[in-house]
Structures are given as structure tokens and as C-alpha cells.
Design a protein that fits this description.
This protein is mainly alpha-helical. The protein is built from 12 helices and 4 strands, in the order αααβαβαααααββααα. The protein has a two-stranded antiparallel ribbon with strand order 1-2. The longest helix has 39 residues.
């Protein structure tokens, strides 16, 4: 009797395993069919092709380009810096529905869009979305008082106000648009930054070695450009750890972090030294090194 029960249990386990495999195969097949429909119908790629955010067709859908590689596509790298960046900013920028320019939220409630409906790569993005509101000196749910983002997808809001954007640097000067590298979790160390910021160059660093610039050992975390100039200041959710790197690029001293009412953990120095140095001591270290200008002393 016991042997029969054991045999039945083993048979049931085998049946369940077979059913599970069948379910996986069915799900994979349905996903394949869905992807096939998307790639051969009216699906669009929001970077190279049109209609990604609307039903308009100005260039060509991606499905036509797949069949005919010579069909027209939009190439951001051939456009001016503003149009280049806007291809990225359509997603990587906190925004509001463009209709809020002349409507109240109550009028479009239930239909409000957090993406630029109707936008196509190469068009002026300003006509299709409003940036998330921010006034310097006033904290919001998305930004600290200095404009540094608290959340993900604020990279674009920060970047357009950064010194790099003002000098014509674009997203694809640093990021590979096809692989997304470098990312917050997987950056390339100092190799990328030193392509432009060589030692003794006009744009800095003005010292002749990495250690003289950072006052840290060359092979330490304290000598990584990204750790000081792009500290982790944002969260994906309110309870998430700090994982989103700032795209303002300016170094924020401990005093400024306190002045802007930002959490101590968002400060580049404190993020590394929270177990051995206070914010006050870190500020004194910077002043002793001559790394604090007049605007950062208070």
C-alpha cells in the first residue's frame, strides 16, 4: 500500500514537471508571436524611427527599415546638440503633460500623460512635453533645492542645467546609445572622463597627477571621477537605496549639502567616510587642501 502511494506521488511529480515545461514553452511561444507582430506591424523605435509616441509617420517605421536597410531613418549624431539630447530626454527626463500649459489637471485627469505623446525623433521636444517644475532654492518631491534629482529619470532635468550641456556636450558623447554603457552599476572608471579632462588641460584637472587632484591614492575609490562628480543622490522608490547618479557634475561640498537640505548620504565625501569622519571634519579637510572656493565656504 505504501509503495503504491509512493509510486503515485512520483508519477504526480513527473506530471507536474511536464505541465510546468509545457507552460514555459507556451509562454515563450506567445511572447515570440507577440514580438513577431510588433516587429512586422506598426511598431516604432523611438530613437531612429517615427510614430513611437503617436500614429504619425514622417520617416519610416522600423519594420520597413528591417526589410530595406536603405530606407530613411533618423540619426541623432548628425543633428545639433539640442536635437541629439532630446531623443534621450523624451524618456530620461521628468515631465508633465504639455496640455497643462492651458488646462488644469482636473480637465485632463484620467488622460494625463507622463510621456511626450506625438513626439518623433528629430522634432523639437519642447512642443510635446513640459519639464517637471522647479525653481532654484525651492525643494519639490522630485528635486532638492539646488536642482539635484531625488528620483530616477531626473538625469535629463539635471543635465540640461549642467555646465556640460551648456557647452554643447551631448548624452551620446559619454553613453553608447546601443549598449547604454557606461551605467551607474557598471562604469568604465576614469578612462571615459580623461578623454576630455586630461591633466594640465584648460578644462582641468589642472594638477599634473590624479593623486594631487583628489588627495586620495590613485587606485582608490576616492580617485574615481564618477564618485565625486556624479555621486548617488537619487532613489528609484522612497524606500530604495541611493543608486541614481547625479548628472549635474559639479562637486558639492559637505557645507553645501547641508545648505541645500540634502541627506548627508548624498554627499560624495560622506558616502565613503560616514564611518570615520563627520561632515564638519570633511569640510575642514577640503578647506585645508585648498579645494573650497569662496562660494562654497558657507
Amino acid at each position: 500500500m505504501e509503495d503504491d502511494i509512493c509510486n503515485q506521488e512520483e508519477a504526480l511529480k513527473k506530471i507536474l514537471k511536464i505541465l510546468l515545461v509545457c507552460c514555459v514553452i507556451i509562454v515563450a511561444f506567445l511572447a515570440y508571436k507577440s514580438a513577431s507582430k510588433l516587429s512586422t506591424s506598426k511598431a516604432r523605435d523611438g530613437c531612429h524611427f517615427t510614430g513611437y509616441m503617436s500614429k504619425q509617420v514622417r520617416v519610416e517605421p522600423g519594420s520597413k527599415h528591417a526589410k530595406d536597410p536603405d530606407s530613411q531613418v533618423y540619426v541623432a549624431s548628425m543633428s545639433d546638440p539640442i536635437r541629439q539630447n532630446e531623443v534621450c530626454l523624451q524618456c530620461h527626463m521628468r515631465n508633465r503633460d504639455i496640455r497643462l500649459k492651458d488646462h488644469n489637471m482636473s480637465e485632463i485627469y484620467g488622460d494625463a500623460k507622463d510621456y511626450p505623446y506625438g513626439y518623433e525623433a528629430g522634432m523639437p521636444l519642447v512642443e510635446y512635453k513640459l519639464p517637471a517644475p522647479f525653481t532654484m532654492g525651492h525643494e519639490t518631491k522630485e528635486f532638492y533645492t539646488n536642482g539635484v534629482g531625488k528620483k530616477n529619470r531626473t538625469q535629463g532635468n539635471e543635465f540640461v542645467n549642467s555646465i556640460k550641456a551648456k557647452h554643447g556636450i551631448t548624452c551620446i558623447n559619454c553613453h553608447d546609445p546601443h549598449t547604454l554603457a557606461p551605467t551607474a552599476q557598471n562604469n568604465t572608471g576614469n578612462k571615459l572622463y580623461l578623454k576630455c579632462h586630461g591633466f594640465g588641460s584648460v578644462i582641468g584637472p589642472h594638477q599634473d597627477s590624479l593623486e594631487k587632484h583628489t588627495h586620495h591614492k590613485a587606485d582608490s575609490k576616492g580617485s574615481l571621477c564618477v564618485e565625486c562628480h556624479m555621486p548617488k543622490t537619487g532613489r528609484h522608490t522612497g524606500k530604495s537605496p541611493l543608486t541614481v547618479r547625479s548628472h549635474m557634475f559639479g562637486f558639492v561640498t559637505p557645507n553645501k549639502t547641508r545648505k541645500y537640505k540634502m541627506p548627508d548620504e548624498t554627499n560624495a565625501c560622506f558616502a565613503c567616510h560616514k564611518h570615520d569622519r563627520s561632515m564638519e571634519v570633511l569640510q575642514k579637510d577640503l578647506q585645508k587642501w585648498g579645494m573650497v572656493d569662496w562660494t562654497h565656504r558657507n
